[in-house]
Amino acid sequence: MAMDVRKTYKMYVGGEFIRSESGRAYQPEGDVNVPRGSRKDLRDAVKAARGAFAGWSGRTAMNRAQVLYRAAEMLDGRRAQFVALLGGGRGARREVEQAIDTWVYYAGWIDKLSQVTGTVNPVAGPYFNFTIPEPTGVVGVVAPESPRLLGLVRRLAPVLCGGNTAVALASETRPLPALTLGEVLETSDFPAGVVNILSGQRAELLPWLAAHMDVNAVDAAGCGPEELAQVEEAAAGNLKRVVKTRPRDQSSPLAVTAFMEMKTVWHPIGV
Length: 271
Known about the structure:
Number of helices: 10
Shape: globular
Radius of gyration: 19 Å
Oligomer: single chain
């Protein structure tokens, strides 16, 4: 009789699948052991994201779009696995389909962001004045407790679309779809460190993510009221941008520009 080989879930940091450096685990979903990330794991994830930022933001828009589209392809290829992880049924199938569509949608926006959000400004002088969007940097992403897969994808995709890198905290109570998403991203041509996914207890990790000096912004739309207050208090010390809400229509370029800086450039006419 063949032995049933149980899946070992790991966090995804710096392009590698890791257990927590502390060796701790917890069981949020039945008897499945999930790594309980530590502050050291969080620091390692931020370091990996910072190291990957220049390469990822410096890629051409077309290339980054291809990578996000590849994520949609790889998620589609594992559709049955994710439907089972989400409990099966029509609702689970719809959630996976929407997650795939989200990757495709934001892949299509990447080479259009400058034209849609940038401007040529009228000025009183012999100059061209341009406003163009640039990525913010390393973004901390807090996944909502529900929906388990789609909630995280809807927050990761616009962050990556804008050329940022991400450190994401999976749902504390139901992290398995997020950790499995790391396996999809590993095979989607993302450079190591562009996306990092941690599991564990938010009370331990979230304040340190918000206070970390090398994190430029936090997507706190997945936080509860008490968690949001913690994030805002921790982020106040280093003037970190905290995005508390998202557009009512989750598929929107406004979700991308929330994590971009607008740079204005002057250029003499005729030079």
